[in-house]
Amino acid sequence: MPTFHSKTLAALAATGLLAACNGNSSADNQARGTMPADSTAAHVAPAPTNSPLTIVAEIDAPQITGVAVAPGDKIFAFSPRWDYNPTFPVAAVTGKNTLAPYPNASWCMWNDSVKNEPLKHWICPQAGYVDAKGKLWVVDPASPGLKYTVAGGPKLVQTDPASNSVVRTYAIPEDAAPRKSYLNDVRIDLAHNYAYMTESGTGSLVVVDLSTGKARGLLKQQPSTLPDKGFITKAQGHALIDPMGKPGQFKADGIALSTDNQYLYYRALSGHSLYRIKTEVLRNPALTAAQVNAAPEKLPDVAACDGMEIDSKNMLYLTGFETGAILKYNPADGKVETLVQEKRLQWPDTFSWAPDGKSMYFTVSELDLTPNWNKGVGPVHEPYRIYKMAAVK
Questions:
Q1: pLDDT at position 35, please?
Q2: Contact (CB, 8 A) for 181 and 165
Q3: Cα 23 from Cα 5, distance rounded (Å)
Q4: 10-29+53-390 has which fold?
Q5: What is the model's pLDDT at position 307?
């Protein structure tokens, strides 16, 4: 899922991030543990006949960007602190309209009383991913308001959904996650005990040796982690232009790991370019920056997307925000199949496979409907939803 920045905030102008202001007042964003019925229900577009989608959750606020599904059909939602303070930035979905703090209320707290413990609290959690052993990994770029990172805050956290506990926290140092960085999404390679993350603030990949905890920033501002030149980001015909008249340009975002852990697929959000790189290159600290920069392989172009996921046949799934669609893409020949396309998929965002592989979940975060891309006025929106669809054979 992308990170988003507002040109009106000078501190964010250089980051290339897209501001995701939701326009809610501070009062609106208090105590969201048990959500009331959606205030926007009257504006909900009807589901098309024979839609393959099932609504798992719909929440009026906070804005939900990421989703992860653990064994036992435990669903988790992620709401980064971009312009307000959601009560549960990492939440267990406990009902269609209800959330609970994960792993506990203390971790979900971030204020002056705990500012000296940046590795023990969610500061601005962006995304989560469940590995093959059922552990939930949470990416926290630690950049509330998208201004800059909190010193000592960027982290990757391994948790255990079975016990609602934190297993290990990996601090990401400033040389890999500088002050204007924004860690975005993650994939876990249990075969080699590594984590691979996209970083959207400056444009890079961050690689973590899970055995030693050492993190390195790679492909820094290399073409594969940057937007396509001249690309105009659009969602269902709506161009994302900020209040200063500048088109939104978004860096490294989508990520997927091949089933054999040999290739990492990744891309910038703004563009049709798609890349992959051998993970052995990313894991080799002896290689120079020039050697790593020469390693990405450009694949056939495909529609712009936010999130990516991969299946057992190494087919890529894309949340195609340009057309409100879920797409299936063959990296070998560039062929694309539209699995579902609906008007109500207003910026489909992040994927998660169900643990049994029989269904796929994804979020719709309506990022293009935020005030920053609408002359300061947030249009009436539908609830932020998590959908479920059966896996494609």
A1: 30
A2: no
A3: 14
A4: Neuraminidase (2.120.10)
A5: 97
Q: Return the domain boundaries, the chain.
A: 10-29+53-390
More confidently predicted of 107 and 27 = 107
Residues composing the chain? 393
Dump pLDDT digits (tens) for 87-128. Answer: 999 999 999 999 999 999 999 999 999 999 999 999 999 999
